[in-house]
Each structure stands twice: as C-alpha cells, then as structure tokens.
Amino acid sequence: MTDEWKSPSKASADSGDDKSWKLLEKTLLAGVQEQRRSRRWGIFFKLLTFTYLLGVLAMLSPLVDLEKSATRGAHYTALIEVRGVIADKESSSADNLVSSLRAAFEDSKVKGVVLRINSPGGSPVQSGYVYDEIRRLRALHPDTKLYAVISDLGASGAYYIASAADQIYADKASLVGSIGVTAAGYGFVGTMEKLGVERRTYTSGEHKSFLDPFQPQKADETQFWQGVLDTTHRQFIASVKQGRGDRLKDKEHPELFSGLIWSGEQAMQLGLVDGLGSASSVARDVIGEKELVDFTVEESPFDRFSKKLGASVAEHLAMWMGFQGPTLR
C-alpha cells in the first residue's frame, strides 16, 4: 500500500495557490458586480434623459401650434391634404378628413377651403363618408366654398370625394377620372391539380367560400359578385352626377363612367374639372385669400417622434440590459 505524501513545503505551495485563485476569483466577481452596477446606473440615466426629451417635446408641441396661430392673418384659405390611399387607419381615412373639414368650416377666419388631392382612390365606403360630410358642411356654411384641386392624381375614390366640391381644378397634366369599381384575385385551381394537392374547405352556408382562389369558379357566384360591383358602380356614378350636375358631358361621352382616366386638359373638356390651377392659384385668384393655413389632421411632433423611436426602444433597452439575442450580419 502506498499513500500519496506531500512535503510541508509542497502543501504550503498548494495552499498559497488556493489563496491566489480565491483572490483572483473575488477580484473577477467584484469586477463583474461593478460592471453590473455601472450598467444599471447607465440604464437609469439614459431612461431619465429619454423621459426628459419626451417631456420637452410634449411641451414644445403646443407652443409650435400657438406660434403658427399667432402668425395667421385676419382671413385665410384652409388647406386640407388628401394623400395616398383612402382607407381606414391611413392618413387619408374618413375620420381624419372629416375632422379636418369640420375644423376648417367652423373657423370664422376661413374664407374658403382647398382640398388638395393626390390619391389613386381606395375604399368606396371611406370615400362615401367624406363625400356626404362635404355636402353636409357646404349646406351648413353656404358662404364658405370648397374647391378640390387635383395635383398628380385624382382617381376613383379620390375623384368621388372631389365631385362633392363646389368646383374642381387640376393641372393640365394631372390624371383624373377612373370612375369604376374593381375587385381582383387569383385562381390556383390548375396549380393545385398539377401539384396533386387537394383542397378541403368546411363551411356553413352554400356560398360562404365563393371567393376562395383554390376552388373553381361557379357561374352563379360569378354573376352574383358582378352584381355587387355593378351596384357599387351605380352608386359611384349617381354621386358624381349629383355633385357635378350639368357640367358633365356624359351624354356626349358615355365612356366617362367606364373606368378610363384622362389628363387634366382632357378632363376639363369632359366636364370632370372646371379649370386648370394649383392650390395656391385657387387660393389667390378664386378665393381671394392667398394665405394657406394647413388644417390637415396630422400626428403631433411628439407622436411622430415616439413612433419613430418605438420600433427601436425595446431593442436598445435589451442591449443596455445585456439581453441582446443572436443576430446574423
């Protein structure tokens, strides 16, 4: 039997090594703790700075509005922008446009309203809401005229809205019209057959899945859907005729309601617009008040700043707190 034997000097050396390792371990742990403590304070001060900046922006936002109000003249022309797709939750939603219109018509200093349009159209429901509200406000405020001014594009639902105005103006090269309704989709029945894939759909209601692109079309369902589009088209045409009246040359040009689109110069000859001009020229020469005051409902600088930062705040907080996940670069 042999037992491992250590000399006193060897044992002393091992004990010294253990103490050195423990000391090194304590030093490393202290360093890690200090880094964590510094990181926490760093996060605190960064959040404090961020909160301070948001507070400053929130306070400055109303001051900017007050400054704009202070520079306005005794009378001015209200400007409302219709930009992009007309749809719920978009900048040109019915809610936003109706709020802008009401604010403009109820302002006693507004001499006239210019609705500046650059839109391909969108929802017939949203456009119909705005159309109806324009006609209601015009009836309530007969002395305040509303002029639609089409810049690059005033098509489909955008022209629907424009037709409610007292007059419509456009540039000679603007695109105007597209009085029609469309609904598009795809059919994948042949592709499914080639792939050997069987479509299984379970519904309650004979026609519940009639728009399913993976099932063959049925003649009666296609006819039904066409009827829905035709009804919507008739409603569109009726509104345009109500708004434009005898100015439309639809008897001489029945293609007006075919979905075609024309230049501003052609549209004037067809009665789709009343003249050529821009928002500033209409304000100056037609309304007689060249100062344009923007009544378009928009997000405040505070809201815009918050939204832009919102997408990255969580990521930055995670990085500061040491929770950054794996990334590929």
UniProtKB/TrEMBL annotation:
The chain crosses the membrane at residues 43-64. The keyword Membrane applies. It comes from the Bacteria. InterPro entries: ClpP/crotonase-like_dom_sf (IPR029045), Peptidase_S49 (IPR002142), S49_SppA_C (IPR047272). Keywords: Hydrolase, Membrane, Protease, Serine protease, Transmembrane, Transmembrane helix. It holds the Pfam family Peptidase_S49. Residues 144-284 form the Peptidase S49 domain. This is S49 family peptidase. It comes from Pseudomonas karstica. The lineage of its organism: Bacteria, Pseudomonadati, Pseudomonadota, Gammaproteobacteria, Pseudomonadales.
